[in-house]
Design brief:
The chain folds into 2 domains: 98 residues, Glutaredoxin (3-Layer(aba) Sandwich), CATH 3.40.30.10; 49 residues, 2-Layer Sandwich (Antioxidant, Horf6, Chain A, domain 2). 29% of the residues lie in helices and 23% in strands. The radius of gyration is 20 Å and the shape is elongated. It starts with a helix and ends with a strand. It catalyses: a hydroperoxide + [thioredoxin]-dithiol = an alcohol + [thioredoxin]-disulfide + H2O.
Amino acid sequence: MAAYLPEFEKRGVKLLGLSCDDVKSHNEWIKDVEAYTPGCKVTYPIVADPQREMIKQLNMVDPDEKDSSGNQLPSRALHIVGPDNKIKLSFLYPASTGRNMDEVMRALDSLHKASHHKIATPANWKPGDPVVISPSVTNQEANQMFPQGFETQKLPSGKEYLRFTHVN
C-alpha cells in the first residue's frame, strides 16, 4: 500500500490501515515495510485491533487460516469508502494471497468515473478504454452528456442499450 501512496494521493484517496496487532508491532512492521521497499514511507494511520473486534465487524476474518493460538487470521481485506462514508467496494483476499494493487487502482478509477458520469465500466476495462453509458440515459440525453459521441452495439434483441463512449 505504501508503495502506491503517490497513486492514491493523485486520486484524492486517504489510506487507513487496520491490523489485529498492537501499536508496538505496527511500529516494527513499518520499519520492515520501509526497508523492503526502499524510498517508500508508511505515512498513513494504522488502527490497532488486538481484540479483533473491528475485523470481525467488517468481515475481514479468513475462515480457514488460524494463528498458533487458534485465533482466526485476518484476511487481506480492503474496503473503498466513498465521500458519503459508505462502502463502495470490498476486496477480500485470503490471508495467503497478497492484494493486487493495480486492480485496486483500476477499480478506484472506475468508481471515480461512474460517480461523475452516468456510466459503467465493462469487464476488463482499463483507463482510456471505452465505457458503457447507463441504460437509464436516453439517446437524446447521451448526445448532450457525451458531445464527443458514442457507438451503439448492434445486438440480436435489437435493443440499443449497449452504448460505448470515452470520458476523461
